[in-house]
Specification:
Helix 1 packs antiparallel against helix 2. A hairpin with a 6-residue loop joins strand 3 and strand 4. This protein is elongated. By secondary structure, it is of the alpha+beta class. The chain has one domain. Helix content is 47%, strand content 19%. The strands form three sheets. It has a three-stranded antiparallel beta sheet, with no helix packed on it. A two-stranded antiparallel ribbon has the order 2-5. It holds the Pfam family Flg_bb_rod. Belongs to the flagella basal body rod proteins family. It is found in: Bacterial flagellum basal body. This is Flagellar basal-body rod protein FlgC.
Length: 139
């Protein structure tokens, strides 16, 4: 029973790690939002992490398992062609190709990840306080 009480720290801690990774990937997307390349294939493609949470049903009990990274997917949206004939990366037709990062979407994703991280910090803090109060009752 007591070990089950500590599972919340594993779940919240893994969720905080997941949100930190999400923030890092979003920051990478934002940093490359205005980059250009000489071909659509070489243009930076936006990335998104994919997470999963599973349930462990061992011994007829159900307990949460920490958040797991399932992978990082790359956007299949097309790179935006820009006519810039003076750009050294321009192709024979004068086009360069901008990354497919949507900056508004990336900002919303960053705010969401930041708030999710903060929420998990509060879960850890509240759980710690409640466990400490429970231990004080036994004195």
């Amino acid at each position: 029973m007591i070990m089950a009480l500590f599972d919340i720290f594993d779940v919240a801690g893994s969720a905080m790690s997941a949100q930190a990774l999400r923030l890092n990937i979003t920051a990478s997307n934002m940093a490359n939002a205005d980059t250009v390349a000489s071909t659509p294939e070489r243009a930076y493609k936006a990335r998104q992490p994919v997470f999963a949470a599973a349930l462990n049903t061992a011994h007829d009990t159900v307990s949460a398992v920490p958040v797991q990274l399932r992978g990082v997917v790359t956007s299949s949206a097309a790179a935006e062609p820009l006519y810039q004939p003076n750009n050294p990366l321009a192709d024979a037709d004068g086009y360069v190709y901008r990354s497919n990062v949507n900056t508004v979407e990336a900002m919303v994703n960053m705010i969401s990840a930041s708030r999710s991280y903060q929420n998990n910090v509060e879960v850890v803090s509240t759980s710690r306080d409640l466990l400490l109060q429970t231990l004080r009752l036994g004195r």
